[in-house]
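Checklist before submission:
- one chain only
- standard amino acids only
- sequence pasted in full

Submission:
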Amino acid sequence: MKLKRFLLRYYPPGIILEYEKEGLLKTKSMDLLDLTPETNPDELLGEIRRSEPLVTESRADQVKQLILRLQQKQGQKDQPGFCFSKGHTAEILSLCFNTVGNQLVTGSFDHTVAIWDVASGRRVHILTGHRGEISNVQFNWDCSLIVTGSMDKTCKLWEAVSGKCVATLVGHTEEVLDVCFDLRGQLIATASADGTAKVFSSTTHQCLVTLQGHDGEISKICFSPQGSRILTAGSDKTARLWDVQSGVCLQVLEGHSDEIFSCVFNYEGDTVITGSKDNTCRIWY
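Returned file contents:
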């Protein structure tokens, strides 16, 4: 295994390791759930090095600096709340913080997306171009890009700093109900009322694979933390696990008696939870 880089996760606190194994790029999570501003960073670093072989002596100082950044974030005083009263002209359906926590993106029924500065409550950019209500918005991991899904059957990719639209992702024949990035920000997954999901490259903007199998609209989609699996939930009362590269359905999760509105992996990627209109949640191993 060859370590490529670290990714910092502020909440819950942790460090993501991106590494190469047998020619494949993979990720694993080091959860630091007990970290506090009072934690001794040198002692924690020692524990990490004893349990994680990828953290070698040459990488030790880098990991320590990441621990200190997490502690610095934890020690910051809470910012006062704010209300952006002059922004959207219709309901806000989706919102998302960036991973640093200093910006917020919102998507509205008024067909626009807004980027906000959290500290001041000031609107930084208004993103226009969609011709339908915004169903979902999300930052990528390094806060450089934003993806938006819309009832106009498209997704759009935006530069977070400039607010410029860099690509429109097309191919769905009905409304796009959900969108998400993978952990590395290299892939984008979309879920649609047309009963299909798609995986796009965030760099070439090309559709790489279409996921077909649901009998009805797909309301939710997410990547596993490792990026090798996709989880979808639909109105056909099932959730499905897919292989990202091939688009093959690996497993159908059946048991709910009504449509499923929500689904998510745990941080290890070995457990799934689904939430349904039947008033139940189910945990799948």
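Reviewer check: Residues 191 and 197 are 4 Å apart (CA to CA).
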